[in-house]
Amino acid sequence: MINKFTEGHKDSRVKGIECIIELCVHLLDFPATKLKIAAIETLSKFTEENKDKLADKLLKARFFVNLFMDLKGEVLKQSESLIIFMADKFTKEIIQTMWNCFIRFSDKPEGEVINEMWKVLLPHCDISFITILGEELRKLDMGKYNDQVLDFIEHFAKKLKDPKTTAGKQIFNVKFFWNLIFDDKFPEVHKVSMLDLFISIAEDRIKRDCIDCIKVNFMEGTSIELSMQFLLKINYIDYKESESFLYNYKCIDRCMEACKKFHIKAKDEKSQKRISPNSFLTKARIYLEFLHVVYTTHDKLCISKEKLNQIWDLYYTNPLFVEETDLLWDTISKENKEHIGFFNNRNGEIDFFKCYLENPKMFNVKEMTRRAFECAMKYFNRINNKGDIESYIGIDFLWKIAVSADNYIVRQKAIETLINLYYNSMVATNNEKYSDKVVRGCLKRIFEFKYTSAKEFKHIFTLLTKLISKYI
Fold first, then answer.
1. CB 26 within 8 A of CB 11
2. Is a pLDDT exceeding 90 seen at residue 121?
3. Which of 227, 306, 370, 407 could link 217 by a cystine bridge, Cβ 3.0 to 4.6 Å?
4. Which string of b and e fits 58-80 if b means at least 16 CB within 10 Å?
């Protein structure tokens, strides 16, 4: 039977595998009708003594070495159950031959067959098997990394993550994955998934050690995007103790420098149609997310006018994709668990509202979107909570939105907000003179509004109609 396998002809080799599996069945004295039982189930009923006998015959005949040295996809598929069953008996030579075969065919259909086998085989591998594979992986030239190899690495890392493979973390230094991530030759598209793998299997002690590498990155201005992602994923910035780190290593400056470089590169890639909106937005979000965590966690690190101008220019004034502006509104609107916002103090919020939202040179009310309106209203409510409505910061801005915004839903929401504000103030005071003053003030605003188009006049008329129906 083993001779049949080693004859070389594909059909003979397939038949040889079938005969070996059939022998296993007969050794257990199965009836003929059971020959089609799943091979792995059949083999699992072997006693250790019978398994040793079978392993001895197969190893002496160099069965597995021959299998991988002269690979045939169909033969390999037939052999899968036998390989899994005998994996703990594999010698270093067999494992190395299997690995070399995988690398040789990793960009061919046969490589896919072996890769599928890794997924099934790795959970059954013992520490010695994992150790040898780890040695081979470390020796692999970066030029041979392709999708199949990267897929293997993912499954290999999951094996290390398995609690049953605790010792594997000692025999295979997981910092190997860390070094891959920050290697310029490692494929860019796989770096984030590799970072996630590293974080999932590395112990806290190792992650803390990596902070020193991150410090070097920020000092030298290299791999900033990945460094920020690492800090975000391990929640390092969330701790007050990280404030000195952020300050000393100029993390905010580095973030903005990297953000500008990213946009310049993305602009070039967009002109060549080499970047999709989704992939762009995924990366553009990282910079804003990093800044948001920094500013909402550390009250001593307030955003400067210079930095805000840079962010505004990149994400609002000159966005590469329309959706990029939504990222900005979402970031500025978001609060942390303690309800601290992006500007982390009232003065900062007022400055943002006056210098950016109310400033026609910085913000175009006509083009206001729903997300922009929601953001503006969030700050309008935060900076105004009592007093005469006419003295509210941004009340003129709200009237302008109600009349000038092109977006119908935005206009209606602005009108609704205005009506409720004035109506609630009248109900709260329960004073007829005050109510009369409010109504007259509203009418005065409407009649004195300097509209610039027939469309705006129509919007004013709509607002007047709704005010009359509410108050009179």
1. no
2. no
3. 227
4. bbeeebbbbbbeebbbebbebbb
